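step: validate -> pass
step: tokenize input -> pass
step: predict -> running
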Amino acid sequence: DAEKTRQLYSHAIDCISDIEYLSVPTDMLTCMVEMAKSIIDDGCSHAKVDSRSFGADSIVPIMVFVVSCAELTYPNSIIEYIRCLCSQDDLVSELGYYFVCFEVAVTFVTTVDPISYEKEFENNQKILNELIEGIQKIGNTVVNIPFEGISNQTNFANQSIENGDPQSQQAHAVEEALSEPLQQMALADVLDELGF
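step: predict -> pass
step: emit ->
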């Protein structure tokens, strides 16, 4: 529920909303760090996980939500202002890391087309539902997974192996070791490995 999520991350929303009232670029970066740390703290306490397991994969989607709720007037101007006036040392530190996360969130919020995004989501949901139905019908039947991308690379690798390239021989051995067990995995096992 969006309202519950808004309440959960209300401190982060308030933090980033204040950024438009700041004039010093490092203060703006500090504001972004405070927002990100609030996201991490609130997310970890809600999910009951350790903050070390809360990386960019978790922060950025929540930051997209927070930025969209903050309704910043000129978020792209803030990014350019910071980029132009901030020290390069600040942009490669922890401040820079959260700045990039913020920049990604702003880019997503300002460029996403809600209609096409909703259609894509519905299409993905339909595909997922069909996949789940197929899994339920098949059960644990063994499936042969095609490795078309690997087979194209294999032709090149085989030529390199024949020429005695040790790096290619090692890569070929790793490929064979990985692909054979995967081809014999049950479909349910593959989906489980992928997190479905």
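step: describe -> The two ends are 22 Å apart (CA to CA).
step: cleanup -> pass
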